[in-house]
Amino acid sequence: MTDKPDSEQIDDIIAQLSGWKHDAYVALRSAIRAGDPDAVEVVKYKKPSKPEGVAFWTHDGDLCFIDVLKNTVRLTFSKGARLPADALFNTRLDSKVVRAVDFAEGSRVDEAAVAAVVRQAVELNTAG
Fold it and tell me: Which domain holds residue 36?
């Protein structure tokens, strides 16, 4: 257990990364913040296999989270299945709840597109 604020714990998660995974994570965090400057950063799901936890962004409920997998950095929108269809999503397409986009080595993060989907997610959460 740590006494650090969640945003500093996310800084620590980023500091553990290198290369393209680090760059993708930083770009995604920047895009999320641009899409909703009022989003709250929260670290959830700390467990022995992932003691650092998973970074979430919330605004009247969960918006999205970033998870680092073996070959990708995945941005998952918690209510993605209810968001307008968007070319950004490339995984979890048959889920009834979430939608995600995987970024692999060599992928470019379209920060404007991510920020736009974040704004859509905020609208969905705040609509009730």
Answer: 6-126
